[in-house]
Amino acid sequence: MNIAPIKSIKDIPTEEDIFPGTPVCAGCGGLLALRHCLKVLGKKVVIVNAAGCFTLLSIYPFTPFQNSWLYTAMACAPAGAQGIRDALDILIKKGRLDPEEDLKVVVLTGDGAAYDIGIASTSGAIYRNLDFYYICYDNEAYGNTGFQWSGATPFASKTGTTPAGRISPTGTELSKKNLFEIWKSHKPPYLATISPAHPVDLINKFKKAEQYKGPKLFINLSPCPPGWATDTSYTARLAKLAVDTGIWALKEAVYGEARHTVIPRRVKPVEEYLKGQGRFAHLFKPSRQEDALKKIQEMVDRYWNEARKAEVIKE
Amino acid sequence: MMKEMLTGNAAAAWGVRLAEVDYVPAYPITPQTEIIETLAKWICDGVMEARFVTVDSEHSMITAAGAASATGVRVFTATSSQGLLYGFEMLYTVAGWRVPLVMINVSRGLSAPITLEPDHNDVLAARDSGFLQIHCETCQEVLDSILMAYRLAEDERVLLPVLVNMDGFYLSFTREPVEIPDIKKVKRFLPPYQPKHAFFKASQPMAQGVAVIGGPVYSYFKYQMHLASRKALEVYKEVSDEFKEIFGRAYNTIEGYMADDAEYILVMTNSFSTLGKAAVKNARSKGIKAGLLRLRLLRPFPEKDIFDAIIGKKVVAVLDQNISIGKGGILYSEISSAICNGKESPLLLSFVGGLGGKNISPEEFEFIFDSMIKAIGIGEIPASRLLYTEAEWKEMDSLKKMAGKL
Predict the structure, then answer these.
(1) What secondary structure does DSSP assign to A108-142, as a single string?
(2) Distance from B49 to chain A by nearest Cα, in Å?
(3) Smallest Cα–Cα separation from B33: which of B69, B83, B67, B74?
(4) Does this model's pTM top 0.95?
(5) What local confidence, expressed as pLDDT, does residue B383 receive?
(6) For a disulfide at A207, which of A3, A315, B131, B265, Cβ 3.0-4.6 Å?
(7) CB contact, 8 Å: B222 with chain A?
């Protein structure tokens, strides 16, 4: 594997590892990112899946992948990865499997599994320094069940279980759990946030991760047209706006040392990201919820002020 | 052959070592922990060539075990009680993967109230999961059953995981003389695992455990599991015959004790059967034609063997060391289903005893035999009777007094 970084979108291999015609929704930001991930990971891969939207990728007797797959359950894909990784190591060590037959073990889950029900099994796998990849497609809610609140849901998003109404006009009152920091506290060799709107950044992060043995973890902000109530053609633009408004920070952490990989020069107001989405529509209509909008802008500003300070000090 | 004094847990560990297991994912829980500690020590000392990993929960443990089995290695794991239930969804999942995992459950009562000593509500909760179930009375049987379990599980006609059960404390921590079989004989009985149906390797990508949509596809796979489990009844007989030939010990699906000429049969499972056997002997000395039937293979359920063993008897009493709240003994229903269509079906009585390791006293056994004799001709069969002695009642009263409730 050539781990030298690519420079432009033109350097991305055109060959696809996922066949078209999958049952996931049109405009799925998770699938868009996964296509790019697999271009770097290659075909010698076994994906260990937890219950979520992507479980529907492999429905008997079809699979869109050219690699192997194991569906586990919602809470335990990292434990499945442990079993497979250990078994492959044993088979190779005992001479029962040609090392050429070895596979990269890749956990693939949504945010419900990553942030909530599977956080213990993930913590265990990272702590044990399991040699695996983890790709979380984070659409900020339980999407496969129709968009309900999860630990990844941001403040003021409307979901099926946090509706906006008279008693709570903002919808979700809690803020998004900081999974990056939770995972980073384990000091894994490699951890990054990614975006389907920044494929060069995404691909270079996977290339960089390749050199490390141990957990290599990725959180992808995945625009979700049915849940976010946006047009399917809007996915890439929305993913880009999330980065440009500073809401989704693209960064990486090597053994717990974090740095930002894309720093927006002129940060756009968060409203530009929020106003195009049905899940935030109640912040604008029937009347503008100024307090909520101000709170979101302040959260983003505070984040970047602190991040800039931290990275300047480091340099 | 020399015998060694081993606990049930140590006997289990010896079975795993002799089976040359490749991988042991583990999580501690009383009274199972001695098994994984023993294996961890052997692996650390290099006398057993396997990988050991302590994971974050039984849910993760059963997942890792099943996933490793689906990759193509021989896997063992062990749990008890709350642990088995904590990982419960993965029992069904791993069975559906059709992988030959062997797992020990060291029985312990279920919370609440939380306790340590055994009954069988834990293992019987897994009754319908697809795991085959072998229930053991002695430490020797625990060791031998592990070897038999791998043969059964890995047989291409079966390909289902197996749960081997032993009672916590009464077997897990009790030393009995155990013959540790010669490894050469074990190798003859149990060849290396070479999966043809489930593995992961780069040259042959495989999607395992995939979703299905629609009842017909789902039913097809569930029926396949059921038919494979039923097939395991035949395979079991082959395996036990070969085991007897090589090791000289015979284990049928059920075990009769003074049962052939008996008129009154007591049905039990696991280590308390030893108490039942003593009670049978005692009853015989008083002229009662008593016998005992011990169920060993619970899944697949050997209806035919049970039917043949108890048809024509006068009365059968099922002594369940479990309780289905709102129904009574679980195995009572199972035995009932095995004999209900027979022309000379015996009367069938139900007793519940030994919950949470409560002793079953000679007086309670006498009560059971007495009830069997009196049942003839009364017409109406009472619901499950709950065994409890007067002394236990008085002791409970004094505890309630201390608690300020009396």
Answers:
(1) EEEHIIIIIITHHHHHHHHHTT--EEEEEEE-SSB
(2) 9
(3) B83
(4) yes
(5) 87
(6) A3
(7) no
Q: Which CATH superfamily is domain A9-314 in?
A: Thiamin diphosphate (ThDP)-binding fold, Pyr/PP domains (3.40.50.970)
Give start and end residues of each alpha helix (H) in chain A: 29-41, 77-93, 111, 119-127, 179-184, 199-209, 225-228, 235-244, 270-274, 290-314
CATH 1.20.1600.10 fits B3-247, yes or no: no
- Dump pLDDT digits (tens) for B349-367: 999 999 999 999 999 999 9
Taking only Cα atoms into account, the Rg of chain A, rounded to an integer number of angstroms, comes to 19
What length is written for chain B? 406
Beta strands in A150-234 (DSSP E): 190-194, 215-221
Q: Chain B contacts of A102, Cβ < 8 Å?
A: 202
ipTM (interface pTM) = 0.97
pLDDT in tens, B285-316: 999 999 999 999 999 999 999 999 999 999 99
Taking the C-alpha atoms of residue B235 and residue B130, their distance in angstroms, rounded to an integer, is 16
Query: Which two structure tokens, joined as six digits, stand for B133?
Result: 């179930």
State which residue of chain A sits closest to B60, comparing Cα positions. Answer: A79
Chain A contact present for B70, CB below 8 A: yes
Q: Measure B61 CA to nearest chain A CA, in Å.
A: 7
Strands in B42-199 per DSSP E:
51-54, 76-79, 102-107, 132-135, 162-167, 176-179
State the distance between the two ends of chain B, measured CA to CA, in whole angstroms.
58
Cα gap B180→B4, rounded to integer Å: 8
Question: Taking the domain B256-394, which CATH number applies?
Answer: 3.40.50.920
B46–chain A Cβ distance below 8 A for any pair: no
Query: Does A129 lie at the interface with B, CB-CB under 8 angstroms?
Result: no
Same-fold call for B3-247 versus B256-394: yes
Mutation choice for A interface testing from B210, B218, B221 by most A CBs within 10 A: B210
Is the Cβ–Cβ distance between B300 and B232 less than 8 Å? yes
Q: Check: CB of residue B86 under 8 Å from CB of residue B63.
A: no
Let me know: does B164 contact B140? Beta carbons within 8 Å: no
Domain residue ranges in chain B = 3-247, 256-394
Phi, psi for A68 (deg, rounded to 5):
-85, 170
Cα–Cα distance for residue pair B180/B301, rounded to 1 Å = 29
Is A68 close to B208, i.e. CB distance below 8 A? yes
Look-up: residue for tokens 């993760």?
Answer: B60
What tokens appear for B141 in the block? Answer: 């049987």
Using alpha carbons, list the distances in angstroms from residue B319 to B57, B149, B291, B380: 33, 26, 13, 19
**B71 within 8 A of A84, measured Cβ to Cβ:** yes
Work out the number of other CB atoms within 10 angstroms of the CB of residue B117.
17
Interface contact flag, B205 A82, Cβ < 8 Å = no
Point out the residue among A69, A71, A83 whose CB comes nearest to the CB of B64: A83
